[in-house]
Amino acid sequence: MIPFCALSMRVAGAQEMEKHGLKRGVNELEVYVMCEIPSNVILATNCRNLDGFSIGSNDLTQLVLG
Protein backbone atom coordinates (compact mmCIF):
# COMPACT_ATOMS: atom_id res chain seq x y z
CA MET A 1 0.00 0.00 0.00
CA ILE A 2 1.34 3.39 -1.01
CA PRO A 3 0.43 6.03 1.61
CA PHE A 4 -0.50 9.66 0.93
CA CYS A 5 0.03 9.34 -2.79
CA ALA A 6 -1.11 11.80 -5.43
CA LEU A 7 -2.45 9.64 -8.25
CA SER A 8 -0.38 11.62 -10.76
CA MET A 9 2.67 10.13 -9.03
CA ARG A 10 1.50 6.51 -9.20
CA VAL A 11 3.66 5.71 -12.24
CA ALA A 12 6.79 6.94 -10.47
CA GLY A 13 5.93 4.81 -7.45
CA ALA A 14 5.47 1.72 -9.60
CA GLN A 15 8.80 2.33 -11.33
CA GLU A 16 10.53 2.70 -7.95
CA MET A 17 9.00 -0.58 -6.75
CA GLU A 18 10.18 -2.38 -9.89
CA LYS A 19 13.75 -1.19 -9.25
CA HIS A 20 13.62 -3.25 -6.06
CA GLY A 21 12.16 -6.34 -7.70
CA LEU A 22 8.50 -5.73 -6.85
CA LYS A 23 6.26 -5.91 -9.90
CA ARG A 24 2.47 -5.79 -9.82
CA GLY A 25 0.97 -9.18 -10.65
CA VAL A 26 4.16 -11.17 -10.07
CA ASN A 27 3.75 -13.62 -7.16
CA GLU A 28 0.25 -12.21 -6.62
CA LEU A 29 1.56 -8.75 -5.63
CA GLU A 30 -1.23 -6.17 -5.57
CA VAL A 31 -0.76 -2.41 -5.42
CA TYR A 32 -3.14 -0.33 -3.32
CA VAL A 33 -3.12 3.40 -2.68
CA MET A 34 -4.30 5.21 0.42
CA CYS A 35 -7.01 7.61 -0.71
CA GLU A 36 -6.31 10.58 1.57
CA ILE A 37 -6.26 13.43 -0.97
CA PRO A 38 -9.62 14.76 -2.27
CA SER A 39 -8.46 14.72 -5.89
CA ASN A 40 -7.85 10.96 -5.59
CA VAL A 41 -11.58 10.44 -5.11
CA ILE A 42 -12.31 12.25 -8.38
CA LEU A 43 -9.49 10.57 -10.32
CA ALA A 44 -10.09 7.05 -8.99
CA THR A 45 -12.13 5.93 -12.00
CA ASN A 46 -9.18 6.65 -14.31
CA CYS A 47 -6.78 4.29 -12.52
CA ARG A 48 -6.40 1.05 -14.37
CA ASN A 49 -2.96 0.08 -13.05
CA LEU A 50 -3.96 -0.15 -9.37
CA ASP A 51 -5.63 -3.01 -7.60
CA GLY A 52 -7.54 -0.90 -5.13
CA PHE A 53 -7.82 1.93 -2.65
CA SER A 54 -7.94 2.20 1.09
CA ILE A 55 -9.86 5.21 2.36
CA GLY A 56 -7.90 7.35 4.81
CA SER A 57 -11.04 8.88 6.28
CA ASN A 58 -9.36 11.07 8.90
CA ASP A 59 -6.90 12.73 6.50
CA LEU A 60 -9.46 12.85 3.69
CA THR A 61 -12.00 14.59 5.92
CA GLN A 62 -9.46 17.13 7.16
CA LEU A 63 -8.24 17.94 3.64
CA VAL A 64 -11.78 18.36 2.33
CA LEU A 65 -12.66 20.67 5.21
CA GLY A 66 -9.39 22.59 4.88
Task: Write a structural description.
The chain has 66 residues and is an alpha+beta fold. Helices cover 38% and strands 12% of the residues. It has a two-stranded parallel sheet.
SSE order in H/E notation? HEHEH
Mean pLDDT: 82
Strand content: 5-15%
Percent helix among the residues?
A: 25-40%
Strand order in space, largest sheet: 1-2
Unreliably modeled segments: none
Our Rg estimate from Cα atoms comes to: 12 Å
Q: N-to-C terminal Cα separation, in Å?
A: 25 Å
> What overall geometry do the principal axes of the alpha carbons give?
elongated
Q: How many beta-strand runs?
A: 2
Pairing-aware structural class of the strands and helices?
alpha+beta
Number of helical segments with 4 or more residues = 3
- The biggest beta sheet, please? 2 strands, parallel
Summary of the model, kept short:
The chain is built from three helices and two strands, in the order αβαβα.
Keywords:
single chain, 66 residues, 38% helix, elongated, alpha+beta
Layout of helices and strands:
Layout lengths: L9 H10 L12 E4 L2 H6 L8 E4 L1 H9 L1
Parallel strand pairs: 1-2
